Amino acid sequence: MSNQPPEIELPPITFLADGENEDEKQANLDAVLPSPGYPSMALLIADSITKRADLIVLDYSPQMVKLRLQIDGLWHELPQQDRGSGDYMLASLKKISNLNYLERRARQEGEFAAEFLNAKTKFNLVSQGVPTGERVVIHVNRKRPSTDTLADLGMRQKMIDELKEHLGRDSGLILVSTLPGDGLTTFYRGVLDAFDRFMRDYYSIEEVNRVEDEVINVNPITFDESAGQTSRSAVVELLLKEPDVLVFPEIPDGETFDYYCDLANEHEKLVLARIPAKNSVEAILRVMALKPTLSKFAQALLCVTYQRTIRRLCEKCRQPFSPPPQLLQQMGLPPGRVQSLYNHTQPPPPEQAVDQNGKPIEIQICPKCSGLGFMERTGLFELLNVSESFRKALSKTTDLASLTNLAKSEGYLSLREEGVVLVAKGTTSVQELQRVLQK
Predict the structure, then answer these.
(1) Sign of CA pseudo-dihedral 75, 81, 87, 89
(2) Dihedral angle of Cα 324, 330, 334, 338, to the nearest 10 degrees
(3) Pick the CATH number of 14-141 from 3.90.1150.10, 3.30.450.90, 3.40.50.150, 3.30.1490.20
């Protein structure tokens, strides 16, 4: 009998190597295909495409290689590899990216592509030596659902209409907020897209080293902090052009924020500013923590719009269940209003994947979500409309609970209340909503 391990069946994936010219690209590919690291590379890249990963991370230690995929904002651990196998795989990845596979300390950046599942996917690879070994991050440039508009992001049309009323005003201040790393830039761009940018002049004031991606008909104006310039110095000259809307991606301090408020209150400009926070009310408190003039802030503020991302259940394999009365009560849903809620499907643990005789059986996983139970993400949104009574409260208290209760008495719906609607619709699960709210 042969002691050779069984040959691994590789996915039908085709790689496209990088290089200075076509001959070098072909030479890099020819070097990789017969290499001992090719099978594990092919399996990893195919797995990342199948599962819709956005990032692949390889962490090298002296003995092992830890592999992770980031999918819909969450990290998923893959089986670890021994260092030898991982080194062969990394050599293949670097070679196909036209990098020096012998270099393990200096930072390197490269790219390659793969054709799989009737689509071509591009990958950007960054490697860097670290004290424990080496870290490799591979960005998967997969085709994603459109996120250009607030409707694409999942905001309800009624909320969009309310927000657009504020966006159409001649003056005032609008705060845009979400958690860092939870789609702040995407949401911010969605809000900018909701402006009627063809009827008024829009300008975004940005530090020259932190320029945002271009938004059509929003004119970028840059300033250089290293030269002593500020957003305020950039605006002084801009005001001669009589802009209608001024957009500030950053709020550096209270004094600068006072100037933003002056633009809204005294110069009668519509101002949009961005700040990270856990919810709409906390976004207000984070601004207040910068010690601006509260009377100016209260006078200028029109609304706060907020987003948090949440995973959508896979509609092909989600599992319905009849919610017990206690759960409906906790969610604030009347008995009988919702007949079924949904959970995501989870493959059973290996010890349960057996037949009646105890023999292992193959568990069929959902072909749509690859057994993850979720497919892409949508948004949870808040819109806090600022009333006169709320403005008065801003000058008297910084208590989160008091301001939240006041806002709720005037129609503000929290993330939890908005999330319950998505759970009731079957868009997401109770467990996923709890996970998001715990951030």
Answers:
(1) negative
(2) -50
(3) 3.30.450.90
Distance between CA 256 and CA 237 in Å, rounded? 16
The answer to whether 181 and 74 have CB atoms below 8 angstroms apart is no
* 297-298-301 Cα angle (round to 5): 80
| Token pair 């795989």 in the structure block, residue | 89
| Amino acid at residue number 103 | E
Whether residue 2 is predicted with pLDDT greater than 90 in this model: the reply is: no
Neighbours of 368 (CB within 10 A): 12
| Structure confidence by residue, pLDDT tens digits, 132-147 | 899 999 999 999 999 9
Q: Which residues in the chain are classed under CATH 3.30.450.90?
A: 14-141
3-state secondary structure the chain: CCCCCCCCCCCCCEEECCCCCHHHHHHHHHHHCCCCCHHHHHHHHHHHHHCCCCEEEEEECCCEEEEEEEECCEEEEEEEEEHHHHHHHHHHHHHHCCCCCCCCCCCEEEEEEEEECCEEEEEEEEEEEECCEEEEEEEEECCCCCCCCHHHHCCCHHHHHHHHHHHCCCCEEEEEEECCCCCHHHHHHHHHHHCCCCCCCEEEEEECCCCCCCECCEEEEEECHHHCCCHHHHHHHHHHHCCCEEEECCCCCHHHHHHHHHHHHCCCCEEEEECCCCCHHHHHHHHHCCCCCHHHHHHHEEEEEEEEEEEEECCCCCEEECCCHHHHHHHCCCCCCCCCEEECCCCCCHHHCECCCCCECCCCCCCCCCCCCEEEEEEEEEEEECCHHHHHHHCCCCCHHHHHHHHHHCCCCCHHHHHHHHHHHCCCCHHHHHHHHCC
* pTM exceeds 0.85 for this model: yes
Answer for the pair 422, 380: CB distance below 8 angstroms, yes or no.
Answer: yes
Mean pLDDT of 284-306: 97
For 57-70, the pLDDT digits (tens) are: 999 999 999 999 99
CB-CB neighbours of 46 under 10 Å: 17
- Where in the chain is CATH 3.40.50.300? 150-311+377-437
Residue 11, token pair as written in the block: 């996915």
Q: What is the pLDDT of residue 351?
A: 63
Contacts of 286 (CB under 8 A, 6+ apart): 275, 276, 277
Instruction: Find out if CATH 3.40.50.300 is the number for domain 150-311+377-437.
Output: yes
